[in-house]
Each structure stands twice: as C-alpha cells, then as structure tokens.
Amino acid sequence: MTVVVTRDVADRFRGFLASCMLEIAPGVYTASRMNPAVRERVWLVLDEWFKQLGGGAIVMVWREPKLTAGQAVRVLGEPPVELVDVDGVILSRRPLTGSEIDQLANSPSHLVPIIPYQEPAQKINIENKI
Description:
It is a single chain. This protein is of the alpha+beta class. The protein is 28% helix and 31% strand. The strands form 2 sheets. It has a 5-stranded antiparallel beta sheet, covered by helices on one side. The chain has a 3-stranded antiparallel beta sheet with strand order 7-6-8, with no helix packed on it.
C-alpha cells in the first residue's frame, strides 16, 4: 500500500496523483498495488515539480519490510522528518525552528527540562533508493 498526502500544493500535483492513485479524501491518495518502479517514477515527477513550483508539502509512505518500522517515508517541503528507533519504539523527529529555539531559550529554566542530546542507537533510512 502506497499513500501520498499533500498539503497546500498546486492543482497540477493533485491532478497527476488522481490519475494514478485513488483520492480517498482531499489531498490523500492511495494505491494498493503500486510497484517500486511506478512509485519511483511518481516520486521523481513530484520532486521535479516541487523544485519548480515549491509551496506546501508532500509525504509518501509505503510498506518496506526491510526497515525497522516496516515502512518507508519520503517528504518534500515542511516539516522534514526523520524516523528514529529509540529502544524499539519508532519516533519521528524534526529539527526545531529558530523561533522554537528562541522560545525555549527564553523560558524559565525550571519549566524546560535539560536533557542532553544523544544520537539514537539506530537511524532508520527514510528514503528507499532504487
């Protein structure tokens, strides 16, 4: 199963995705039997158009048994996410924005837990190169 979710993208993206996938809700597309070659071609088209037009965000998710989470994720736009395995629990992590860092820096220290950053034991590759 391949799922693509779009947010605030040009109509061109939606029309293209609707031509090769089922739109089950506004901006949400699924394909139960999309093979890896077709999925890669769809992603290349989305990536190229996104470089030209920008705006919004696109997320593609599909079953990938070789990965710890059992699924792969590709993201265009905001927010960029990284899947990490923390003690067997799959979490998504994104970098803090400048305003979020400023907000934390200006918060009273008793309200902000100080937790030293540690590299996760195992990073999960969110992009499956073919």
